[in-house]
Amino acid sequence: FFQVLDASSDPTKQMLAQGLRAQVAMRESDPAKAEELLRQAIAIYPKAPGVRSSLATLLYSQNRKAEARKALEDGIKDNPTSENLKVRLAALLVEETTPENMQQILVLLKDICTPQQRDGFPYAVLSAAYAALGQSEPAMQAALRANERGGGSEAPYQLGLRLMERGRFVESITHLKRALQAGPTTPEFRGRWSGPTTKQQIRREQPS
Question: CA-to-CA distance for 76 and 74, rounded, in angstroms?
Answer without folding.
Answer: 5
